[in-house]
Design goal:
The complex is a heterodimer of chains A (237) and B (315). Chain A starts with a strand and ends with a helix. In chain A, helix 6 links the parallel strand 7 and strand 8. The longest helix of chain A has 16 residues. Chain A is built from nine helices and ten strands. With 237 residues, chain A is of the alpha/beta class. Chain B has a domain of 210 residues: ABC transporter involved in vitamin B12 uptake, BtuC, CATH 1.10.3470. Chain B contains 15 helices and two strands. Chain B has a two-stranded antiparallel sheet. Classes of the chains: A alpha/beta (237), B mainly alpha (315). Chains A and B meet through helix 2 and helix 3 of A and helix 7 and helix 8 of B.
Chain lengths: 237, 315
């Protein structure tokens, strides 16, 4: 077992003339707490889409836990242990909150996990009271919690949290952070994309800043934050 | 409904259907009942792909027609009995569903629907030029007199269709409640998010298309015995495609009761219209009912019932 759980090599993805991800090379160590910041449109989500298999990159490779997963469809990567939440919540409308959680329990694990596990996960994120409601009846806040619970249901080895805390109140941010810290203690590598600076500074042990599809800074959070280029493109000073 | 109750109800329905031919003297009951049950099979089968997975299939006519002609072929070639014709139809329909799915299910939404629309024309053109099954002239199928229990052919095919109806509803209900149903619902809601939750979306869509196609074809298989004469125009009728879509939309697409309610309702209205007014107006009525539901009750009768319950509840 190597110490690198995720390696991204020279990844490129263009949408027409726009290079959304432009030659990103990145290694994430096992058990790491990595934060990714960058202005809107800097390629953070496209990078995640390439890693999870939602988008096929034009060039480059994604290696997960020593296996080249570049050619694998998203569901195979999910089964290998990559889970994500979506920046804009994408609930499975038309089925209940509980059934939403049962989808990854059904499909990621063999043998399938039952509804009991789904209820545990819902109480973990504080949605147990809503288990039998249709997913479309949830508030925006509850949808974010559902999104996180669905990612956790996959019992991933790598969790990519794409703005799970946007729009949450301070005490809720604390709750989510607590959940993520607990997971990390259990050995799950967490990559966090976030605009809420105090949250990402508290959580990350390493911070990356992206701009126009490239990594412009990579290092200890305090150093990256003080980096003049990061200050210019991200904080606007 | 609990599974125990469902099984009991299914057995009761089958027993009633088996006894009825000996008790009910009026042949029209079975004649009209056959069509109603055929609609139940068609609506239920369509809903597995169209309702659960959200892929609107306009090509139901092709599958029903393939079922009809698979039966004609097996009868002409081997004098195969009805159960073998139905089984053969299911195999051909399933393969057609798989093939169609493979070609079109990677396409999204409306493009998929357009693809399926073309399927009926392709398949019927093939049949029109195949003389072994009668080509454009049509084929006469003289069903042998049933040797068991049933007094005549119509009540025999009625019972066969009843069995198919119970079987397809049971399959739909099982799919809906199992991991397959949850996966299909996830695909309907959001294909990418489903993939990221570990759902093999293409494989699951192909499975749904295969089951749906197989069941649609079984709805056609007993038709040659029922009608004694089949020709491509009626076997591949656009009515099948329209009704397959209308019935689940009228009843509700989210669970198995919707298509059953829609099918019984629509076939009832159609039968009433057939005996009272000219048949062309029939189609017009179906069209108007469908438009009415799409505008006023997009979730079907079940959706309306759910809303009524929600309104009644104190808030």
């Amino acid at each position: 077992m190597s110490d690198t759980i995720l390696a991204v090599r020279d990844l490129c993805k263009r949408f027409g003339a726009l290079a959304a991800v432009d030659g990103v090379t990145l290694e994430v160590a096992r058990g790491e707490k990595l934060g990714i910041i960058g202005p809107n449109g800097s390629g953070k989500t496209t990078l995640i889409n390439c890693v999870t298999g939602v988008v096929r990159p034009d060039r480059g490779a994604v290696i997960f836990d020593g296996t080249d997963v570049s050619g694998l469809p998203a569901y195979r990567r999910a089964r290998l242990g990559i889970a994500r939440s979506f920046q804009i919540p994408r609930p499975f409308v038309g089925i209940s909150v509980l059934e939403n959680i049962r989808v990854p329990l059904d499909y990621v694990h063999r043998p399938h996990r039952d509804a009991t596990r789904a209820r545990e996960l819902l109480s973990l994120v504080g949605l147990d009271g809503r288990a039998d409601h249709p997913a479309e009846s949830l508030t925006h806040l509850e949808l974010r919690k559902l999104e996180l619970a669905r990612a956790l249901a996959a019992e991933p080895r790598l969790l990519i949290a794409d703005e799970v805390m946007a729009g949450l109140a301070e005490n809720e941010i604390d709750e989510v952070l607590k959940t993520l810290f607990t997971l990390n203690d259990q050995g799950v590598t967490v990559v966090m994309i976030e605009h809420i600076m105090h949250a990402i500074m508290r959580f990350s042990r390493r911070l990356i800043c992206m701009e126009t599809g490239r990594i412009i800074a990579d290092g200890a959070p305090q150093d990256v934050r003080r980096n003049p280029e990061v200050r210019r493109v991200y904080f606007g000073k | 409904m609990k599974t125990r109750h469902f099984v009991a109800a299914a057995i009761a329905v089958l027993a009633l259907g088996a006894v009825a031919p000996r008790v009910v003297g009026n042949g029209y009951v079975f004649y009209a009942g056959f069509i109603a049950l055929q609609y139940v099979v068609i609506a239920t089968a369509w809903n597995i792909l169209g309702g659960y997975a959200g892929f609107v299939n306009f090509g139901s006519g092709a599958f029903v027609g393939v079922g009809v002609y698979a039966a004609v072929f097996l009868f002409n070639a081997l004098q195969a009995p009805l159960w073998a014709q139905i089984l053969g139809a299911a195999c051909v329909g399933g393969l057609l569903g798989l093939g169609m799915g493979y070609l079109t299910l990677r396409i999204q939404g409306v493009y998929f629907s357009i693809g399926t629309l073309a399927l009926t024309t392709v398949v019927s053109t093939f049949i029109v030029n195949w003389s072994f099954v009668g080509a454009a002239r049509g084929a006469t199928v003289m069903a042998p007199h049933p040797q068991i229990w049933f007094p005549n052919v119509v009540s025999y095919v009625f019972f066969a269709m009843l069995t198919m109806a119970v079987l397809s509803v049971a399959i739909a209900r099982w799919i809906e409640r199992s991991w397959i149903g949850r996966g299909l619902a996830a695909i309907r809601a959001d294909g990418n998010a489903a993939e990221c939750a570990g759902v093999p979306t293409l494989r699951l869509k192909l499975l749904a298309a295969t089951i749906s196609g197989a069941l649609l074809a079984t709805a056609g298989a007993p038709y040659p015995y029922y009608a004694s004469y089949v020709e491509p125009d009626s076997a591949f009728s656009i009515n099948y495609a329209l009704n397959a879509l209308a019935m689940p939309l009228i009843g509700g697409t989210r669970n198995w009761t919707g298509p059953v309610i829609g099918a019984l309702l629509l076939s009832g209205v159609e039968q009433a219209a057939t005996v009272t007014i000219p048949s062309e107006i029939n189609l017009l009525i179906v069209g108007l009912v469908l438009i009415g539901f799409v505008v006023l009750a997009p979730e079907g009768l079940l959706g309306l019932a759910g809303q009524a319950v929600a309104w009644g509840r104190p808030r």
